[in-house]
Amino acid sequence: MKKLALLAALSVATMSAGFAQDLEQAKKVRQSMFQVAAWEMGTLAGMAKGEIPFDAAKAEKAAKVMNAMAISLDEVFIPGSYAGSKVRSEINTKPELFQKDAANFVKESEAMITAASSEATLKAQLGKLGSTCKSCHDSFRAD
Description:
single chain, mainly alpha
């Protein structure tokens, strides 16, 4: 899983203007990013539920990966790259709502980095972070 996280992070970090215009590649990178985000959210949720022993260093790493994904969303949500994916058409008709959801994801994932220092603060912040995921999925993700 570390390789997948590294691959997704490197893919986003090395995107050039020309690369970003490759719509199929943007879709693949976006899907990889969300696989990594789901993995890291599973780590955080597992710790919050007591299913995984709490480890502040691992929780902080997971939060930092989530935040990196959140910050990079605008590079992979490119109009025209949604065909064959779970992105609903509302992303095109309600861009201001999508931008609001994305900004909330950045804000709450950033707050999770600090909250990861203790089990109690991680638990409190996890609900806020999870609500940003839910809000965007409810509006823009087809199941």
